[in-house]
Design a protein that fits this description.
The structure holds 2 protein chains of 2 kinds. Chain A has 2 domains: about 30-150 and about 285-355, 3-Layer(aba) Sandwich (Rossmann fold), CATH 3.40.50.2300; about 150-280 and about 360-370, Response regulator (Rossmann fold). Chain A has 12 helices and 15 strands. Chain A has helices spanning about 1-25, 50-65, 85-95, 110-120, 150-160, 175-190, 210-220, 235-245, 260-265, 290-295, 300-320, 325-335, and strands spanning about 35-40, 65-70, 70-80, 100-105, 125-130, 145, 170-175, 195-205, 225-230, 250-255, 275-280, 340, 345, 360-365, 365-370. In chain A, the strands form 3 sheets. Chain A has a 7-stranded mixed sheet, sandwiched between helices. In chain A, a hairpin with a 2-residue loop joins strand 2 and strand 3 (about 70-80). Chain B has a single domain (about 1-120, about 130-285), classed as ABC transporter involved in vitamin B12 uptake, BtuC, CATH 1.10.3470. Chain B is built from 11 helices and 2 strands. Chain B has helices at about 1-30, 35-50, 55-85, 90-115, 140-160, 165-175, 175-180, 185-210, 215-230, 235-260, 265-275, and strands at about 130, 135. In chain B, helix 1 runs antiparallel to helix 8, helix 1 packs antiparallel against helix 10 and helix 10 crosses helix 11 (about 265-275). Classes of the chains: A alpha/beta, B mainly alpha. The interface of A and B includes residues 210, 238 and 262 of A.
């Protein structure tokens, strides 16, 4: 009897061990000699701050973990310049020339949306750490993001404005996929609050920097709240600067694209008190302080670095488990339990959207600081 | 009224940038596209001076513009002249060449200073504008208007009352004849390039006070200069000023009534109207291009 128990225990343990091994990682021989991953994001141009921050996070992860299953990792960086045309060309090059099966990016919604059909057609997984357009949600099966959709942020922003005194809202948006997607979400969210009045809804061309006439219209409509949705910190900086110069008495709100030293370089003291809604870092996450100390100073916001780091970590985890196969990586991610990242806890829903938290920051002494209000 | 005032301010900037462009065009008769990016380069020099030294703002603008003036002269002497004079290149060839040079310099600027937007400020704080009759105008905007006004007067006086100014006008009116009567054509063109480039840098520095600077602004500036020049009458100093003002006011009215996305459409519609119905521009008597 004792022998039978020992034998059964032995066989059961052996099966468990074998099963665990198979479930945990793929054989090294199934991985390519060099695991080449792609990156498309704005490395130059007005939105370069975000692209460079995401790149810094990815760089840090792979400097700490240079191999996956003993195979070296190489990330090939391409500049999407925060526009669809350049991003599409970059994605084509990565897929057809470099033969990557996985791309970090795009850094902007416009990049992601133009890359999505190419990635879907070629069965290549993408993960964005900076795209917030609601359209990304339905961009495809292989399209993921560890960044929240604007629809969530817009709801929070509308609720906040509705709960405060200044309710005559002017909306200034840049003509980009990101900003126009955000604009629609804001307008939709505002309909839930009868007390909110949209007195001006103005769009302006890409890279515009003279907003005086649009702000004059907002002033004439007696707006007392202004939502600035520019694609870059500099664009938002000019809106804020010129609003003060024109003497507008408004509370200014904005999204994640306010983040960046350029905003304060341009807006200077006029930027004080501006309120920003965006995904915010959680300093209580394990390893947060250590990673922040290793990362270079953020050009836009540290959250982009941390989400880039987390995207790299999730990519490595998936490849380690299922190999460098895009469809397998995609399936793994949809079923993946909560991933404890540095930028937050990540779990993808059925659309590849993440469940990241949204917070509020206020400009104070030349930087955005967390506020609990 | 505030819309018209905004238009006059931005129009003043366009006027200033068109002045130098017009002056150069009147002497060499080709579109000096490099002009726009040299103006932008002047702002990067200004920014470098601001970060390195703490001299008075006007002095730094002057020094940066002086350097750009010298670079402008060099661009004629060693870049344009061998092709325009020696090789007898057509104005179309010169235009394409100049445009190529603009792209090269734009990318060099991006390489050295990155593609970021930099702001240029005289003061460290942003102040509300001066209010009068319900209108608002900032200190920077007053500086722009006064500088434009003074520049136009000085340039008119220089061209009309000085020996060198008359020589420049003579070159513009009839380059071949000036050679036969003994004027040193190349020296005069060099002076024209210096003055034009100097003014471009001054105007770009003022623009930067309003909208900052980035490498890609070069093409935008030269396009505004061309439109303002054609509207005002290409080759005419007064025309450049009025062309710039009209362009600025029309653009701002377009933004107000149709939305900012129509800004460029408004500008090019105005240009098309002038090309169709008054191709010689507002000030015909200074028209030089035939």
């Amino acid at each position: 009897m004792f022998k039978r128990i020992v034998l059964i225990t032995f066989i059961f343990s052996a099966l468990m061990l074998t099963g665990c091994t198979e479930d945990k990682t793929v054989s090294t021989s199934e991985l390519p000699d060099v695991i080449r991953l792609g990156y498309v994001g704005p490395l130059t141009g007005a939105a370069a701050a975000y692209g460079q921050d995401i790149k810094a996070g990815i760089d840090l992860y792979f400097s700490e973990h240079p191999t996956i299953g003993d195979k070296p990792v190489e990330v090939i960086y391409e500049d999407g310049k925060c526009n669809g045309a350049d991003a599409a060309v970059a994605a084509q090059k990565l897929i057809t020339v470099d033969k990557v099966r996985f791309i970090f990016g795009g850094g902007c919604s416009g990049e992601t949306l133009s890359m999505a059909p190419i990635a879907e057609e070629n069965k290549v997984v993408t993960i964005s750490s900076g795209s917030s357009s609601p359209e990304v949600t339905t961009a495809g099966d292989y399209i993921f993001r560890d960044y929240p959709s604007d629809s969530k942020v817009a709801q929070d922003m509308a609720a906040y404005i509705a709960s405060h005194d200044r309710k005559k809202v002017a909306l200034l948006t840049e003509q980009t996929d990101f900003a126009q997607g955000y604009r629609m979400m804001i307008k939709d969210s505002m309909t839930a609050y009868a007390e909110l009045e949209l007195v001006a809804d103005e769009a302006y061309g890409v890279d515009n920097a003279d907003f005086r006439t649009l702000l004059t219209k907002a002033k004439q409509q007696e707006a007392n709240a202004l939502i600035s949705i520019g694609q870059s910190p500099s664009t938002n900086g000019f809106v804020v600067k010129q609003a003060k110069e024109l003497g507008l008495d408004v509370q200014i709100y904005g999204p994640d694209t306010l983040s960046g030293q350029e905003f304060f370089d341009i807006a200077k003291d006029a930027g004080e008190g501006v309120i920003q809604f965006m995904v915010v870092p959680d300093p209580t996450q394990p390893g947060y302080a250590e990673k922040i100390s290793k990362l270079p100073e953020a050009q836009g916001a540290s959250i982009f670095q941390l989400l880039g780091y987390d995207a790299a970590g999730m990519a490595a985890l998936a490849i380690e488990h299922v190999g460098y196969d895009a469809t397998a990586i995609k399936d793994y991610w949809y079923d993946m339990p909560i991933y404890k990242g540095i930028g937050g806890d990540h779990k993808f829903d059925e659309n590849g959207d993440d469940t990241t938290k949204i917070g509020m920051r206020i400009a104070k002494d030349g930087e955005f600081v967390m506020t609990e209000e | 009224m505030q819309i018209i005032l905004n238009g006059i301010i931005i129009g003043g900037i366009y006027a200033l940038i068109a002045l130098g462009f017009n002056l150069i065009y009147s002497s060499v008769r080709f579109y000096h596209m490099l002009y726009g990016i040299l103006a932008v380069l002047g702002v990067y020099f200004l920014r470098f001076f601001q970060m390195t030294f703490h001299w008075p703002f006007a002095l730094m603008v002057f020094l940066a513009s002086f350097l750009i003036g010298l670079i402008g002269m060099a661009s004629w002497q060693w870049f344009y002249r061998p092709l325009a004079i020696t090789k007898k290149a057509s104005s179309l060839v010169m235009l394409v060449l100049s445009f190529g040079a603009l792209i090269v310099v734009q990318n060099l600027i991006a390489l050295v200073w990155k593609n970021n937007t930099y702001s240029i400020s005289i003061t460290e704080t942003i102040k509300s504008g001066y209010q009068f009759f319900g209108l608002s105008i900032t200190f920077n905007q007053l500086v722009i208007l006064i500088t434009t006004f003074i520049s136009v007067i000085l340039l008119e006086l220089f061209l009309g009352r000085t020996k060198w100014g008359m020589a420049i006008r003579a070159i513009g009116d009839n380059p071949e004849l000036t050679t036969t009567i003994g004027l040193k054509t190349n020296q005069i063109i060099l002076i024209v390039f210096f003055i034009g480039s100097f003014m471009s840098s001054i105007s770009a520095s003022l623009i930067a006070l309003e909208i900052g600077v980035r490498p890609t602004y070069g093409l935008m500036l030269v396009m505004k200069a061309i439109i303002a020049s054609i509207i005002g009458g290409i080759g005419s100093i007064r025309g450049a000023m009025f062309g710039g003002l009209l362009l600025g006011i029309t653009e701002n009215m377009g933004i107000y009534f149709f939305g900012a996305q129509w800004q460029e459409v408004t500008a090019f519609t105005l240009l098309t109207i002038f090309l169709l119905f008054r191709p010689q521009g507002l000030f015909q008597k200074y028209q030089l291009a035939k």
